[in-house]
Amino acid sequence: MHVNKLVLASGSPRRRELLSGLGLPFDVIVSDVDETIEEQMPPEEMVRTLAYRKASAVSNTLQDGIVIGSDTIVVLDGQVLGKPVDEQDARSMLSRLQGRAHTVYSGVAVIEASTGRHLVGHRSTLVHMRSLTDAEIVAYVQTGEPMDKAGSYAIQGIGSTIVDRIDGDYFTVVGLPMELLASMLTSFGIHVLKATEDSKR
Ligand SMILES: Cc1cn([C@H]2C[C@H](O)[C@@H](COP(=O)(O)OP(=O)(O)OP(=O)(O)O)O2)c(=O)[nH]c1=O
Prior knowledge:
The protein is α/β, with parallel strands linked by helices and 201 residues long. The chain is built from seven helices and seven strands; from the N terminus they run βαβαββαββαβααα. Strands 1, 2, 3, 4, 5, 6 and 7 form a seven-stranded mixed β-sheet that branches.
């Protein structure tokens, strides 16, 4: 199959939007990988493993292209909060997260399909969420926004109004650490910031 040089192995509209912002052409190929993972694994290992699993499931089907996979989890008191299974689950996650800080981990894997050469990295960001009343939690869950998000909130959406501050990279929380990704892409000959011959003079 012929693909653009860059391939995003993700069904996440947020990741697609962030990557679009770079102005590079890319294709999206969504893999249906099993995201089951050993619970005792350290969180950074978890997101790195899943990012690589997603990217390799797609790169294995291609002859060429540079494939990007990513994974995001929310960790509170050493416990991983993934996507909520239902509204009740979303409400209970938010009542645990409110009024305190948690860590968001995002892993990124970049694989060159023709050779299998790959890089895997991750970033983490501390997110301080403001206190929420039960009524606010119910109202937020009713918006529907939490349902497909790790930790049951979206910092880039209505969730922006419940985050007090963050320590670290914003894009790690949304789901794709952009500075990390760009530096990884450089190793595969894709330079987001490349001076043209004209501008070098
Ligand atoms: C914490 C947080 C998570 N999220 C999202 C990012 C991810 O889409 C999702 C975490 O689930 P993931 O399993 O990382 O990704 P995904 O299933 O949405 O997409 P794919 O596996 O195909 O790449 O949570 C936000 O959009 N905003 C936030 O503030």
